Amino acid sequence: MARIAMVHDIAGVAAVQAELLRKAGHDVEQIPLPSQGASWKWPAKALAIPVRIAAFLPTIRRLRRGRYDVVHIHFLSQGIVGVLAGVPFFAQAHGSDLHANLGNPAYRRITRMVAERARAVFYVTPNLRPYLERYTSKLVYLPNPVELDPGAPPASVNRILIFTRLHPVKGPERIFPAAERLSALAHVTAFDYGPLAPSYVRDYSRWVEFVKPIPHEHVGGFLREFDVVIGQMRQGVLGLMEIEALASGRPVIAGVDSSLYRADPPPVINASGPDEIVAALKTLRNDPAQLREISRRSAEWAKRNHGYSRHLALLEATYFQEGSEATVRA
Q1: How many alpha carbons fall within 13 Å on the CB side of residue 25?
Q2: Are 223 and 161 in contact (CB under 8 A)?
Q3: What whole-number distance in Å separates Cα of residue 162 and Cα of residue 233?
Q4: Is 23 buried (19+), middle (13-18) or exposed (0-12) by CB count in 10 A?
Q5: Three-state SS for 121?
Q6: Cβ atoms within 10 A of the Cβ of 50, count?
Q7: CB pairs under 8 A, 24+ apart, for 33-39?
Q8: Phi and psi dihedrals of 144, rounded to 5?
Q9: Any residues with CB less than 8 A from the CB of 289 and at least 6 apart, and which?
């Protein structure tokens, strides 16, 4: 079996991958990266780049000396450690490392250098592929691994969860204008989480209960406390939070571009604004049979597309295919 370095982590994805690979018999080392300056604002963040690279030196030395069969680095800009170590590596793109970093001169060059040097580039949502078109031959669609116990399907709509970060890229302004009407249908909960949280808590706490984010290991049980989940409205894809809701057997209302999921469309109720959200909730509230059916289909779809066995098979097929070129493409 292989000796694998899993470098950095985003939203716990690398930790899940490491555990799946260990259970398959591989020797996996998880290597965190220091985060000095990562949360700074521009232009101070640009000034921190040399400091961050200097902080990466222990990891670079570790990768050079580790005799790893596989080096897998999460977040494209962090792939600079693989470039500087001079070792073959796989890179995984998660979102802002493309749609934000490619628009920034300081990170664009690093991002492209990493994509060019990587043996293969994993991407986690289908909307990221256009950012990587110049690297088509090495792209591998690798949906985030999610496997949760769906439990019993909801029997009625009494508790609604707005399950998204309060950030402009998630489109909360398309959700919260419905808050007062939603609160007349059911109890509404949302996370006090993201840069827009202070203003949203101030403006909508009359109708929405805001709670702090929970530890990731408790997300399945938390989601099963709700009957319907409302997800992001702007990006057109299912992020990790929406996928977790589906895996928990919760009907999900979200803004999804179905053309990105032609092979196996998710059973999501598509909405683009407050009126559509309210209409969808009323339909589900008045049709318990449909509520249960969507719950069942949601859990099955998540298992089929994001289950652990599928994820492990995609990883191993890419890591170990002859010639270092990925065999699984999207």
Answers
A1: 3
A2: yes
A3: 11
A4: exposed
A5: strand
A6: 10
A7: 33/7, 33/8, 33/59, 33/78, 33/81
A8: -55, 140
A9: none
DSSP 3-state of 102: helix
Produce one character per residue of 64-102: b if its CB has 16 or more CB atoms within 10 Å, e if not: eebebebbbbbbbbbbbbbbebebebbbbbbbebbeebb
- The number of residues making up the chain comes to 330
Element at 146 (helix H, strand E)? none
User: Which residues neighbour 152 within 8 Å (Cβ) at sequence distance 6 or greater?
Assistant: none
Whose tokens are 């994820």? That residue is 311
Question: What one-letter code names the amino acid at 285?
Answer: R
Residue 108 to residue 294: CA distance in whole angstroms: 41
- 232 contacts: CB under 8 Å, gap ≥ 6: 164, 169, 170, 171, 239, 241, 242, 254, 255
Nearest by Cα to 244 from 223, 213, 271, 266: 223
**What is 194-239 written as a DSSP string?**
STTHHHHHHHHTTT-EEE----GGGHHHHHTT-SEEE--SSSBS--
Q: Give pTM, 2 decimals.
A: 0.85
Rounded to whole angstroms, the Cα distance separating 265 from 251 reads 14
Token duo for residue 119: 């043996």
Query: In angstroms, rounded to a whole number, what is the distance separating the alpha carbons of residues 188 and 160?
Result: 5
Residue corresponding to tokens 């049980």: 221
* Cα dihedral across residues 159, 283, 202, 195: positive or negative: positive
Whose tokens are 């200097």? That residue is 54
In angstroms, the CA 57 to CA 42 distance is 24
58, two tokens = 């222990």
Q: What does each of the 330 residues of the chain score in pLDDT, given as a tens digit? A: 899 999 999 989 999 999 999 999 999 999 999 876 555 565 655 656 677 788 899 999 999 999 999 999 999 999 999 999 999 999 999 988 998 888 888 789 999 999 999 999 999 999 999 999 999 999 999 999 999 999 899 999 999 999 999 999 999 999 999 999 999 999 999 999 999 999 999 999 999 999 999 998 899 999 999 999 999 999 899 999 999 999 999 999 999 999 999 999 999 999 999 999 999 999 999 999 999 999 999 999 999 999 999 999 999 999 998 544 443 444
